[in-house]
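Forum: Protein Structure Q&A
Topic: Joint prediction for protein chains with partners

I've read a bunch of threads here and the consensus seems to be that you should model interacting components together rather than docking separate models afterwards. I'd like to see that in practice. Below is the full input, 500 residues plus whatever partners are listed. Could one of the regulars post the assembled result?
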Amino acid sequence: MNILYHCGKYFIFLGQVFSKPERGRVYLRQTIAEIDKIGLGSLPIVAIMSVFMGAVITVQTAASLSGGWIPMSTVGYATRESILLEFSPTIIALILAGKVGSNIASEIGTMRVTEQIDALEIMGINPAGYLVLPKIIAAVLINPFVIMVSMFLGVFGGWLAAYTSGIVTPAAYIEGIQQQFIPFHVTYSLIKTLFFAFGITSISAYHGYHVSGGALEVGAGSTRAVVYSSIVILLLNYVLTQLLLI
Amino acid sequence: MIEVIGLHKEFEGRKVLSDINFTFESGKCNLVIGRSGSGKTVLLKCMVGLFQPNEGQVLYDGRDYHAMPEKDRKEVRKEIGMVFQGGALFDSQTVEENVMFPLTMFSKMSPEEKLDRVNFCLKRVNLDNVNHLYPAEISGGMKKRVAIARAIALNPKYIFFDEPNSGLDPQTSIVIDNLISEITHEYGITTVINTHDMNSVMEMGENIIFIFNGKQEWTGNSQSILESENDNLNDFVFASDLFKKMRQSLREKK
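Posted by a regular:
Agreed with the consensus. Here's the joint model:
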């Protein structure tokens, strides 16, 4: 019953978020600021993780295949597929749920407990729309770009590992990443990214918006935001994979 | 003028306010007084629409606030300013941006006109050279003054103050009280102040409602409060020795 209660409340919240903005230009400015904060602010951590994960996938795959009859170009193929299909869209989304999700929940939660949201409401502004809509739009617009950067850097990290460790020749790796490339896999990843971006921002904002109490509750709301965003990402990942790949 | 008629409010079956009937007059400092937890803030939040009362009406110059459609309520809200206990300034915006915010959202002023209005409002609350500071960089008293400047930016007809002196030293409290009083009389605003600061009550109490355990216990002004025979009110007002002595000397003079 509790889940049903929160689902209902979440959809009512979304109704408030998507109601007509008071001043379109102000929302646009907010959206641009959020693109910078949510997307570009996440690039460093996404870049570091992608390079290292690509490198690790390459080394692990090469270690599993070494001495066997399978051609070493398979290492490049496996790295590319792992990164494109799962690592970049899903694992990075889980990391963003931690970084961006907790940030959104704590920011909005703090505004709630310090009565800043009440102040907006009394001014005649729709606080849910003003605070949350720019974040959702920004994440949906910028996250596909962040994920594409992650894909590129992941594959590059694999090449770097091949080049520096010598466990597989760079030429074989390059040959592998070009094998049996299915462009739809990139589209599939980007479709997933759009859903994940919406989920992370809206669920985190929901948990921040409904905080009541003080600093302790803001922290608890932030944790709930990360946990529920992560669960929803995993659920959506399974459902979307079933729908799009089979 | 704001009229509160037969207002009741309860949370999960627990009565917080019962049968409040009071008229908050325009051009006057109207005070809501009472002990902590007596229901003052709930009354204020019912009046501004943050809480929906279970029963009763709140009339803004005859307009039934809780019965009107949301669209009309938004229009009334543009006539309301509110200064919260902690100021409720937007942390991510500078002082200038905070005061300019309602103008950006609801006025059709040019950027220059908005800046002029912001500077006028900040000057009105005696603040200079703070435009580019963030709320975290200014003192509690300055935050209150910025919040007042933001509240008057759109020339409101009604201003609500929730504990305007909490956390301030006595001198700054007097500055804030004088400011509220000046603004109220200068612009003819209906000012509603929620306080348990007795200095404010004596200085500004032109029209007072005393709430005790969620009920309207007494109404009057700063003069009649000294002569009241209401025990609950006297326990609240004359809790300190200073006020006990003040009452005593007034009675002896008479």
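Chain B has two domains: 24-51+67-79+158-254, 88-155.
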